[in-house]
Design a protein that fits this description.
heterodimer; A: alpha/beta; D-Maltodextrin-Binding Protein, domain 2; nine-stranded mixed β-sheet; two-stranded parallel ribbon; 15 helices; 13 strands; B: mainly alpha; MetI-like fold; 2 domains; three-stranded antiparallel β-sheet; 16 helices
């Protein structure tokens, strides 16, 4: 018993000393789970090929990342946050309130959202309107909004197959869901008179849309079991499972890297990370990491990140984004409006 | 006269039937549980065992001047996509360390790309037809084979499946559990000793008791939130580190240790205490020299089970930031780290299919460690247990 007591006291003492002698040459990164695979790839490369330690990356979601990022300046706060959407004005203001006034925005490329099904079926062409009508909580029938009456795809349009509407998708906490609501639901409903010119994003809760959790692999697995169903997930998962899944073309455009990169494919979003310039003196590795991320070997059409699902931006935009990061350009509120 | 007997024997038959039915139902329940266990293990083994093997290929590595600038140039073009980038990117560094390599060309067994690995294992791979043909040719010449995957046990996480390993997570688990043990064991045992041996039986101690029993049943994620609020936000303990993870898990393990220690203390018969008091020992001497040593096996068993429980925990660690990407095997209590279950969680979300086997392989390792821990607890109990 005495020995055990002594060991614990010593262990506690060692821990205390180690805690005081804590240095911070390690970059700390938080943010989007969509950007996470790319960021961790760069981080690993950074750790393996430079003398700096590998940055620590947590996947917290875009919103969660920006919340931590905007908590303030100093030791305990992250240096970089990844986001699968642009920083919101409200988040920018909160940052400023907490003293985070000098942020650089880095645009790294695009990610497409796939609307896919098991390859046991024939490919299906849909429009955003049709997806909207299949998934909205209330839809216009004869000029009036009623609870969504559609149960088969063929109810919406005779050209669609006579299959039950069942769609697996991400939960409301997910950035993919945000993007889907904005790019499909809002875009499709804006022009519909019944909604008065405003975007409508409520998704039906009667079982046709199935909340499948944050893990996109789960959706992929479920599509293999339920061949009637569709899934909504990031493009990289479609590419990785090209043997068992086929993506639907949306508004006549197939989900291909080219179509997503050129902006033709309508359900694509931009990916970013944000750098806290006020940490430059304490964490010198930060810019080295950011520059490596923005380099051609990572984000170009020949870059490594393309191999794991990033859709590169056109050269001109890449060049512009790279310059902004190299110059530590400060993001202004006016840029966001 | 025979009628009452008939009635009794009929009743008896009914009762026997009932007990037989109960027996079958409970055996069925056990069988079902066993079946699920077998299915789970079989699934994990089928998916996870390939993770312990990794493809290697023999290629010509040309340590030229050019390769020190552009590592891709070190191997011939037809095998370039087949060699792991994780190997290639280290070539310039190796040439700096060993200048005599410059200008030489060697046949070397190198780590193959994850896709080659998947192809050789008969899984779906993204190799082109021409690349598959090259792999087939290499395999026919005995220059491509599956070997035991040491990388899996010596390296941390990686984006390249062929380089991903559990060592960083295993190290993180060890460090985290050391902190957990160092904090929860002394506090837990002392609390139990006080409550059992010294405390008067009044309202206050009863209230404490009820609270401890309640704490043992609280969902673990709440401990994570508590850890975030107290250790990180209030005391400023660095995020994602074994210290904060260990402290959080210690909160969770405390009630388990307290409860099992109290049970162990209670099972020490009063005659021991009376005898010690009889020869003039003070209360502290009685506890330290007699009761505690006799209760130790029970205390250790309870602590091991509490630790095993903490080891499998992920939810509270997500909140304190221990579910992170950690490629380097650390060794410090204050460096960012991750733990085994968190590593499994991370891999399960990877798009790359090669990570399916890594996930299952990680689960197999975690299960093996947990079974070892629990078996140790059982063995200790059997070996040191005393009957009074």
């Amino acid at each position: 018993m005495n020995r055990i007591l002594k060991t614990t006291v010593i262990a506690a003492a060692v821990m205390g000393v180690a805690g005081v002698a804590q240095a911070r040459d390690q970059v700390r990164i938080v943010g989007s789970s969509t950007v996470y695979p790319f960021a961790s790839y760069v981080a690993e490369e950074f750790g393996a090929t430079t003398d700096f330690p590998t940055p620590v990356i947590e996947s917290t979601g875009s919103g969660g990342g920006l919340r931590l990022f905007c908590n303030g300046v100093g030791e305990g706060t992250p240096d970089i946050t990844n986001a699968s959407r642009r920083i919101k004005v409200s988040e920018f203001e909160r940052c400023a309130e907490n003293g985070v006034t000098d942020i650089t925005e880095a645009f790294i490329g695009y990610d497409g959202i796939a609307f896919a099904q098991s390859s046991a079926n024939e490919a299906m062409d849909v429009t955003r309107e049709q997806i909207f009508l299949a998934l909205a909580a209330k839809v216009p029938v004869d000029g009036e909004l009623v609870d969504n009456p559609y149960t088969q795809w063929s109810d919406i349009d005779a050209s669609l197959p006579d299959r039950e509407i069942a769609v697996y998708g991400p939960p409301t906490t997910s950035g993919t869901r945000d993007a889907f609501e904005e790019l499909v639901m809002e875009a499709a409903s804006e022009d519909m008179e019944a909604y008065g010119g405003e975007g409508y994003t409520d998704i039906r809760a009667d079982g046709a849309f199935i909340d499948a959790g944050e893990n996109d692999n789960l959706i992929v697995q479920r599509l293999a079991e339920n061949t009637d169903a569709f899934g909504i997930f990031g493009y990289s998962f479609l590419e990785e499972n090209s043997d068992s899944l086929i993506g639907s073309s949306i508004d006549g455009v197939e989900p291909t890297p080219e179509a997503i990169g050129s902006g033709e494919y309508p359900v694509a979003r931009s990916l970013f990370f944000y750098v806290k310039n006020q940490h430059a003196d304490e964490v010198p590795a930060m810019y080295e990491y950011a520059n490596m991320f923005m380099s051609e070997q990572m984000i170009s059409d020949l870059g490594y990140l393309k191999g794991i699902g990033l859709i590169p931006a056109p050269e001109e935009l890449r060049e512009q984004a790279r310059q902004a990061v190299a110059d530590h350009e400060s993001l202004e509120l006016a840029d966001l409006k | 006269m025979s009628q009452p007997f008939d009635e009794i024997s009929a009743q008896l038959r009914r009762r026997h039937r009932k007990s037989a039915r109960l027996k079958w139902i409970s055996m069925g329940a056990l069988g079902l549980a066993g079946l699920f266990l077998v299915l789970f293990f079989a699934d994990m083994l089928v998916k996870g065992l390939p993770a312990f093997q990794q493809a290697r290929i023999q290629v010509e590595v040309d340590y030229s001047e050019r390769a020190s600038q552009l590592p891709l140039a070190a191997v011939q073009e037809n095998v370039r996509p087949l060699v792991s980038r994780g190997y290639l990117r280290l070539i310039p560094g190796r040439m700096d360390d060993n200048p005599e390599l410059l200008g030489t060309t060697r046949m070397e067994w190198v780590l193959a790309d994850g896709q080659v690995d998947q192809y050789l294992k008969g899984h779906h791979s993204k190799l082109r037809d021409s690349e598959q043909a090259v792999v087939d040719r290499l395999a026919a010449q005995g220059r491509a084979e599956l070997r035991f995957n040491t990388t899996f046990f010596t390296r941390g996480d990686s984006k390249m499946p062929e380089l991903a390993g559990i060592a960083a997570a295993a190290m993180g688990t060890v460090l985290t559990l050391l902190v957990t043990l160092a904090v929860s064991f002394p506090i837990g045992v002392m609390t139990a000793v006080y409550l059992e041996e010294f405390a008067p039986d009044n309202r206050v101690t009863q209230l404490i008791e009820i609270n401890i029993n309640n704490l043992a049943a609280i969902p673990s994620i709440l401990f994570g939130l508590l850890g975030l609020a107290i250790f990180i936000n209030f005391f400023g303990v660095p995020r994602s580190t074994p210290v904060v993870g260990g402290l959080t898990l210690a909160l969770m393990t405390l009630p388990v240790i307290i409860i099992s220690t109290r049970t162990a203390l209670r099972s020490v018969p009063d005659s021991i205490r009376h005898a010690a008091f009889g020869v003039g020992c003070s209360r502290w001497q009685v506890v330290r020299d007699h009761v505690l040593p006799l209760a130790m096996p029970g205390i250790m068993t309870g602590s091991i089970i509490g630790l095993a429980q903490a080891m499998g925990e992920t939810a509270p660690l997500i909140i304190v930031g221990m579910v992170a990407f950690i490629p380097d095997v650390g060794g410090s209590f204050t460096e960012a780290a991750t733990v085994l279950p968190a590593q499994i969680f991370t891999w399960a979300g990877e798009p790359d299919r090669a990570f399916i086997e890594k996930t299952s392989g990680g689960i197999l390792v975690l299960l093996a460690v947990l079974i070892t821990l629990n078996a140790t607890a059982v063995v200790m109990r059997k070996k040191f247990e005393r009957r009074w």
